[in-house]
Amino acid sequence: MKSYKVAVVGAMGAVGHEMIKTLEQRNFPVAELIPLDVAANVGKTVRFKNGDVTVKEAAKGAFVGVDIAIFSAGGDASAILAPIAVAEGAIVVDNSSQWRMDPAVPLVIPEVNPQALDSHKGIIANPNCSTIQMLVALKPIHDAFKIKRVVVSTYQAVSGTGGKAIKELSDQAKAFAAGKPIEASVYPRQILFNALPHIDVFLDNGYTKEEMKMVNETKKILDPSIEVSPTAVRVAVYRGHSESINVQTEKPFTIAAVRELLGAFPGIKLMDDPSKLVYPTALDADGRDETFVGRLRADPTVPNGLNMWVVSDNLRKGAALNAVQIAETLIERKLL
C-alpha cells in the first residue's frame, strides 16, 4: 500500500492532538508525520506510533513534499497557509470556517457527500462540528423521505472552545468546591452549573455565527431547499455535543422505518430503547467515532414530524475523525 507524507497544522492544540491520535488509531498510511505549529511551539514534541516527533514551524517551505496537510490552526492561519500548502504540492483538509462557504471549495462529510471531493482544487473544508453530527443523522432520513425543515437546539461542550475553556470549567469547579469566588474570562458568564445560549458572535439577524453555520452548511452539503432553525447553547460538559432535532419531511414515515434506516447507516450507533433507559449521552460518545442517535418519536403537532436526540464527540467526529476520513476517502476515490 502506498504511504503518504502527512502534515498536521496546529499540532499542539486539542484538535491537533486528536488528529494525530486518530491517524494512528485508524492506521492511516503515514510515511512521515510532520507536526506544524506556531514558532513558540517549535522544538516541542508530539507522540506518534511509540515515538516522539519534533514540531516544526508552519510557514512557507514547510509543505514541500507533503501529500496531505490537515489543518486545525484557526481561520486566520488557514487563510494564509492553506494556499501556500497547495502551491507547494499538498492537498489541504481545513478544519476552520475560513473556506467552508467558498463555492470553489468542497465542504465534505464522507458519509453524506463524498462525491463533492471529485471537484476539489487543492483545499477541502471540514464542516462545523455541530453540523457534522446533525447531517450524519439526517442523511438517511432525507434520502428516504426528503426533509423540508429542521429545528435544532445544541448542547455543546466547552472543548469546542479549546483548551482554555476546558481549564476554565475545571477551575470553576475547584473554586466552587473550595468555597472560593468563581471567575470567568473565556466565557462572558460562569459556565459551571450553567447553560449559555451564546456560541460565537451575535449577528444583525439575532442569530450567532455558530447558528448560521448550521443553516448555511446544511444547504451546501445536503440540500439547499432544507430550512434550518437553530439555537446553539454552551453547557458545562467537557467533551461531546448533544442536539435535540425536530424534523419535518415531505413524505410520510414510520418510526420503525426510520429506526431501520438509522441502524444500517455507516457511522451511526442507535441507542433507542427508553423502556430500558437506553439513550445516548455525552459520556457515551466520549472518545468514540460514532454518531449516537436515540429518543426517536413522532411529532404529532405537524405532518410528518420527527423528534430525535443526537450525540457525538466533537473532537472526534466533529473535527479530527471527519478530517482523517476525508483523507481516507481521497485515497479510496484515487484522488490522493
Indicate the topology.
Elements (H helix, E strand, L loop, with lengths): L3 E6 L4 H12 L4 E8 L7 E4 L2 E4 L1 E2 L10 E4 L3 H13 L3 E4 L28 E3 L3 H17 L1 E10 L6 H15 L17 E2 L12 H13 L5 E9 L5 E9 L5 H10 L3 E3 L11 H4 L5 E9 L5 E8 L3 H17 L4
Parallel strand pairs: 1-2, 1-6, 2-5, 6-7, 7-8, 9-11, 13-14
Antiparallel strand pairs: 3-4, 9-12, 10-11, 12-15, 14-15
What does this structure look like?
The chain is α/β, with parallel strands linked by helices and 336 residues long. The protein folds into 2 domains: 4-126 and 319-332, NAD(P)-binding Rossmann-like Domain (Rossmann fold, 3-Layer(aba) Sandwich), CATH 3.40.50.720; 131-313, 2-Layer Sandwich (Dihydrodipicolinate Reductase, domain 2), CATH 3.30.360.10. Helices cover 30% and strands 25% of the residues. It has helices at 14-25, 75-87, 129-145, 163-177, 209-221, 255-264, 282-285, 316-332, and strands at residues 4-9, 30-37, 45-48, 51-54, 56-57, 68-71, 91-94, 123-125, 147-156, 195-196, 227-235, 241-249, 268-270, 291-299, 305-312. The strands form 3 sheets. The protein has a 7-stranded mixed β-sheet. Strands 5-2-1-6-7-8 form a 6-stranded parallel β-sheet, with helices on both faces. A two-stranded antiparallel sheet has the order 3-4. Strand 13, helix 7 (282-285) and strand 14 form a beta-alpha-beta unit. Helix 1 (14-25) packs across helix 8 (316-332). The two termini are 13 Å apart.
